[in-house]
From TrEMBL:
Residues 7-96 form the Stage V sporulation protein AA domain. It holds the Pfam family SporV_AA. Keywords: Membrane, Transmembrane, Transmembrane helix. It comes from the Bacteria. Gene3D superfamilies: eubacterium ventriosum atcc domain (2.60.480.10). The keyword Calcium does not apply. It comes from Dorea longicatena. The chain crosses the membrane at residues 108-126, 150-170. This is Stage V sporulation protein AA.
Length: 224
């Protein structure tokens, strides 16, 4: 096909999921170009194929943006490609079969129970370590002159304070937020995801399994 001059802007997210084994550039990248025909053609360029999607170890690969640019230049050798996103990105194949509803529900219940009992155990262990019950008893006896029976206004307000503190710290109650800021849990999850993605990219690069220029074939996937 004859080359055509023009500027193509491409943007890749760090991690992209696809639902089909044959992946086109338009499936994993955001692309902008002033020529609609050129834009449509670039989006339909084949990038890679997952040959063994039944093997979960071969459902993921890392792609260098240089490979994408090479694919574009094979069709449009005079095109100027401007990258405004990631230089390396992860492509993961995920089947969208709609199954696993019950399993998904069981996982949610399991996580809720583990979080609830884990938090309760941690709170009780902390209180025992610092002797909160004994301290409250001493404070109550000092203020009232009577011995504490273990359940006084101090314990009651302490329980309410823990609930208010948790809601304030996590900035979340049910589906409602106390502010527009991301919750600490969301921040930690994003940091964890970024660490995982960075590790995957570096691991594939060091093992030379990254789909890059000059790489025609990899285990489980191909760029041909």
């Amino acid at each position: 096909m004859a080359g055509k001059a023009g500027t193509v802007y491409i943007k890749a997210d760090r991690n992209v999921e696809v639902a089909k084994t044959s992946v086109m550039i338009g499936d994993v990248l955001k692309i902008e170009c002033t020529d609609p025909a050129m834009l449509a053609r670039i989006r339909s360029i084949h990038l890679l194929t997952f040959h063994h999607p039944d093997d979960k170890r071969q459902r993921r690969t890392v792609v260098s943006l240089l490979k994408v640019i090479q694919k574009i230049h094979e069709i449009y050798p005079d095109a100027a490609v401007e990258n405004i996103g990631e230089t390396d990105f992860i492509v993961t194949y995920e089947e969208q079969d709609g199954k696993g509803g019950i399993i998904h529900g069981v996982k949610i219940v399991a996580v809720v129970l583990i979080s609830f009992f884990g938090a309760a155990f941690s709170t009780m262990a902390f209180n025992n370590d610092v002797g909160v019950t004994r301290m409250f008893g001493q404070v109550y006896e000092l203020l009232t002159g009577t011995k504490s029976d273990g359940f006084t206004i101090l314990e009651f307000t302490y329980c309410i304070g823990i609930v208010i503190g948790i809601l304030t710290f996590f900035n979340h109650f049910g589906k409602k937020r106390l502010s527009v800021d991301p919750t600490p849990m969301e921040v930690e999850m994003r940091l964890y995801e970024n660490d995982i993605q960075t590790t995957l990219v570096e691991t594939y690069s060091r093992k030379e399994k990254e789909l890059d220029v000059g790489e025609k074939h990899m285990s489980g996937t191909t760029g041909i």
